[in-house]
Amino acid sequence: MTVTAVRETEPALGRAPAPAAQGSPLTRGRRRLFWPFVAPALVLYTVFYILPTLATAWISLNKWAGAGPMEFAGLDNYRRLLLDPIFHDSFANTLTILFVVGGATFALSFLLTMILRDMAGRKAVRSIIFFPNIVSGIVLSILWGFLFQADGVVNQALRAFGVDDPPNWLGADNLFSIIMIGLVWVQTGFYTTILMAAVDRIPKDLYEVCDLEGANAWQRFRHVTLPLVWDVVGVCAVLWSISAIKIFEFIYAFAGAAGQLPPTKVWNTALYAYAEAFAGGVPKYGSAAATGMVMLALVGVLVVLLRRMFRRDPVQF
Amino acid sequence: MYGSLPRRQVFRIVAAAAVATTVSLGTVACGGSAGQASDELVYWSMWKAGEPQAKVLESAIASFTKETGVKVKVEWKGRDVSKQLAPTLNTRNVPADLMDSADRFVKSTFVATGQGLDLSPVYDMEIPGEAGKKVGDVIDPKYRDYATADGKPWLVPYEVLAEQIWYNGDELKDVASAPPKTWDDFVTLLGERKSARNDGPLALDADIADYSAFWTYHAVLRDLGPGAFGAAAVDKTGAKFDDPAFLAAIQKIEKLVKDGYFAKGYDGSKYPAIQQKWAGGGADFLLLGTFAPSETKPSAKEGFAYRSFPFPEGAKGEQTQEISLIGFAIPAQAGNAEAAKKFVAYFMNKERLSKIASEAGNITPRPDIEVPAELADVKKTLDTAETHPALDGVKMDNADWYTKVFQPVNTELITGKASAADFVAKLKSTSVDFWKLND
């Protein structure tokens, strides 16, 4: 899988590029060394990524129970996905996670970055908000479940404050919202850390200029911080899109229990694929693989769009 | 590196690599058991090391090796054992010669794909240490019939699970001396208990879709008889849902929900919160499988006496008991099937199998083996009642319909979001759509 993008000329980076003369010994040496350096990685990449992807694509065109004969089905698996209301819900949930959870996560990350920029002890705080990212999602989802259940910590606290009839957090109607809040909580630290690292590289004198000019916090963010971390935000957006579409264990462990799948209402495409293969009946690997291919296509489209959205000449500083 | 790559190019490489990493459905490579001596067998188990059943099997394996010289390489895979074995079944080197699992997993992995061995020869084998007795003689025939497809048995069961309504006999002495037989008796009892405790007497962890389904299914079973639910599930026209008796059965459950007979928090907790609440005395009745006592014992209150009664009778009258089985299966391509058969026959010996009851606290398929005290009520029902597969085998044979069509609507019914009439209408329409798509 390759991502195509139009190349633009980079501004000179203070060093003249090597002349592309055929005969330059440096260029010849580089060209000779190209394959020895690239080949090992390329071989591994082919064996572990490209071939399995092709195998998955092939399986998605078949009806297969994971054992026994494969039966060629053409695009039937894809047709069924298109018509299956449960898949529609799962796909909608995937997009909701992508945009709503993503939006909330990034808004929160920017906010924290702004707050933490000149705070004392920010290194410690940074570690603390990064913590949810280190702990396994399974552990977090279990903890999260205990917080919100009917007699859980949250409701007991609410009752202590005189709320007699606290919301049914884990009821079917609220479950997905709680999952989304949990995901924001898990992800925010990671993106805050990356953004803070980028913000730390911005020269202090630019902010001093802001102070002299009398810029307020928003103007500072809008005209200094954001443009100078723009390419990092782009990378974060790509990383988030990819991980958002793959989110699985948090939902599975949080909403499912005792080896049971979560209710279909909170499935995303990753869970749908899992359920197709392992819901307990005859496994449908073809359908699961087709779901995987749809997810792959979604990632591809998103990455291309994001690359276009975030394309601009990098600022030198 | 000679000079840094332009940032854009780095970005592109990162993006391309990241996209490729999303490919998560890879092919699985497995080590095979090829080239083994025939005095060895590989056994993949659904138990985890240290579980009571694993300990029982382990000691049987040790004595089996000592007596026969056949080495058993056991791997405690856990509940997903069939998922792990499935992709290898049609290869030349199936990594396991013997597997144990719950019936529905064996059926979907082995039977549906034609990759399971016909176990008739095992039923005809003599049991080591019990002269003149064959495996088929000691297992209750109804269990053998249960696990037979097209005349070929696909499972040799060593554990029988059954759903009943559990309660604390120490606290509810009246119930213990005369359990409610009919639905009306049951509802009257619920009413009394509800006013006594000012909370619903029925314990249910509704976040486990199966547990909610047990209620609905049993109501249908008692009013329409065994097989009715299974037939409705595969009815492509949905006409079977129009039966007024079906609606009447669902209305029973609707009433339980409306009248607040389910304990507070049942629809907003995380398993096992409510069954623990029940064991601690916070509710009276729990509809669950025979694993209920062993699962809830750690949180049971002082002096808790596990008693149970079958789901009360409905319009159909006669009492039936639904069951599910756990047992052994052998892959068709197993390299050491003979050794595997030998071990199965060896394990079915009364003395060895009885440890499944005495040490692992479960019911065995041999009627001549004593069951643990807390399962005595279930055993009494099993000895007299007709048995049939749990959920009419729907979860076994039509898991997709059960998961995608039935469960979502059923959860709405049980949590009070849908009336009985809504439930039936919705179940019918989504069923029809489902079968159009999955015919």
Description of the structure:
Chain A: Residues 91-306 form the ABC transmembrane type-1 domain. Chain A: One of its GO terms (biological process) is transmembrane transport. Chain A: It is found in: Cell membrane. The complex is a heterodimer of chains A (317) and B (439). Chain A has 317 residues and is mainly α. Chain A has helices at residues 25-59, 76-83, 85-117, 122-134, 137-148, 153-160, 175-200, 204-213, 217-246, 249-255, 269-278, 285-309; strands at 62-63, 71-72. In chain A, strands 1-2 form a two-stranded antiparallel sheet. In chain A, strand 1 (62-63) and strand 2 form a beta hairpin. In chain A, helix 11 packs antiparallel against helix 12. Chain B is an alpha/beta fold and 439 residues long. Chain B contains 20 helices and twelve strands. In chain B, strands 1, 2, 3, 6, 11 and 12 form a six-stranded mixed β-sheet that branches. The model of chain B is unreliable at 1-5 and 14-36 (pLDDT under 50). The interface between A and B is large, with 82 and 70 residues.
